Amino acid sequence: MDCNMIELRGIARRYRLHGQTVAALDGVDLDVAAGELLAITGASGSGKSTLLNVLGCLDRPDSGHYRLDGEDVAGLDDDAISAVRNRRIGFVFQSFHLLPRLDVLENVLLPLRFSGELTPAQREGHEARAAELLRRVGLGDRLRHRPQALSGGQMQRVAIARALLMQPALLLADEPTGNLDSRSAAEVVELLRELNAEGQTALIVTHDPALAEALPRQVRLRDGQVEHDHVH
Prior knowledge:
Rossmann fold; six-stranded mixed β-sheet; four-stranded antiparallel β-sheet; 35% helix; globular
């Protein structure tokens, strides 16, 4: 881990709410090395979701600099920022966001379908990679199952496989264990740790103290600022 995957300097994001300006992020500085695994924690309203949206290029900061893998992405135009988001960042959400009419394999292939790259000529190779990812997350025997036939933990593992399809430099997970029972949550955390051991950089936003303590580093936000940054 000899270089930074993420460099944030003075990141601010403000919103108008009921006629007042609210600073969701207020001068955030943060470095994340390539290959790190860390938790982003804090009370509701502390700025966690806004920070995740900025890191995922879903939202632009009002001021400050954001360098992703050495590139200043805050000033890119819409097409370029979309390319960064689609190619270099994988997203995992609390609610899985799987399409019930598609089987597990087709759900993992969705990023390629959305990007227009799931062509007939390339489909076999893409299917092979998706199937390998599903085997990697322990679902090699569930390729043709629909999401409703899976447990919550299995659905989240499908979502993780989908997030990895484009081989992203950065994996962002928003409350990935929030809808899971304790056993399924532990399995998902272990999977994230295994992926990180293989070199995947990942940030996990969580309210779960047990999950935060299980990760090597914890960054806690308060009132849009970094209050605490601790390596376990």
